[in-house]
Every structure is written in C-alpha cells, then in structure tokens.
Amino acid sequence: MKTMGLARLVLVAPEKPLDDVAMRRSAGAEDVLGDAPVVATLAEAVADCQLVLGCTARARRVQLDEMLPELAGQRAVAKAGEGAEVAFVFGRERTGLTNDELQLCHAAVHIPSNPEFSSLNLAAAVQVLAYEVRMAHLEGQVQPVTRELESGDAPASHTQLEGMFGQFGQTLEQIDFHKGRAPESAMRKLRRLFMKADLSEQEVRLLRGILADAQRMARLAGSGTG
Hints:
Elements: E1 11-12, H1 20-25, H2 30-34, E2 38-39, H3 42-45, E3 51-55, E4 66-67, H4 69-81, E5 86-89, H5 99-102, E6 107-109, H6 122-139, H7 158-174, H8 184-197, H9 201-223
Parallel strand pairs: 1-2, 3-5, 3-6, 4-6
Helix pairs in contact: 4-6, 7-8, 7-9
C-alpha cells in the first residue's frame, strides 16, 4: 500500500492483535499498520463509504457487476475525486470474502489469471489493485461522472443504504410480497439494483418515505381499520 501511495488501512476482526512480528513484517510501513483502526464487522468498516469494491477470485452466488482491476482503479479514483469515501475489500488468505460480505459491495473486482493455476495470495492481490489505483491517479485516466446530483445532495453512505435495505426487507414481509417463497432471492436482486443506481441521500430518504407509508398501510390493513 505505501509503495503505491495508499495510507488508509482498516482491519476487520483480525485473528490476533498487532504485535512486534507484524510491525517487523511491515518493512518500513509501520505507520500504515500502526494507524489502522480495528473494527468488528465489515459493515462498520465501510459505513461511511459511497463506493465499495470487493475483490474476489471466483464467481459466486451473489450477482454483482464485475470489473477488471484497471477499470476498478479508474472508478475508485474518479469517485474519490468527487469527495466520496471509497473502499477496496479483501477477504481472508484461504477463503476470500463470504457471500454475506460481498452483498455489502457495489461491484466485484476479479484479477484474471491462468485458470489452471489461479492461486494468488492476498499480498499480491492488494499490490495489483493498489498499482491500478496509482496508475489511474498518475495518468489521469478518470472515468467521467456517471450522473450529476442535484445541488447540495450528497451520495448516500453505506450505512444509509443498509438502513434502506433493512426497511425494504421488513416492508416486503409486512405486505406478504414473498407469498411463502424464500426472501433472500428478492433481496439480492434489490441490492444489486440499488447498488448500481448510485443513490443520493435525498433519493434514499424518498424511498424510505414510500416504504414507511407502505408499512403504515400494511399495519392498518392488519388491524382491520382504515
């Protein structure tokens, strides 16, 4: 990270606390490691982010837009240039990111490798993505802003989106949308839809207002009053 000019590292539930061995292995980047906050969950780590890119080695059940590292670096630099918080998420050395963790991401990043020998360790994956971010920054290969927000309207944070998704799940249950079917499939599709939409804070408030009214009507219908 430090070699490529990146400095902000967040550690999620590490198996053991940072110690002298970890500091020695940082090889001159003790400041990056020493300044890294430690949080309990990935949701907490990305709570203030408007773009979260999950790095995964293989296709999973979670359907996300997938991009190559070069485009991911360009998109990250472009979004950061708007003043947004951006995160690249890397999983465990052996098992990578879980499906639940990938659901917290806006898109997936896949490093193409030899399918007959696709093993790539965590440090190498971080270096590849950090390099692409560095190149996008140095070369100015920034993708144009996909859409303009209204004056004074900021992009929705990850926490705001998760609150909306939680309310969506409650509302669909209250209006009996699933009709006995498993709710996970519908929620995965809704997540994918709204993650791609790049919602603003105002748009999230509008959607949550609609959901609140739907919940109110469901409660009235359930009580037999109107």
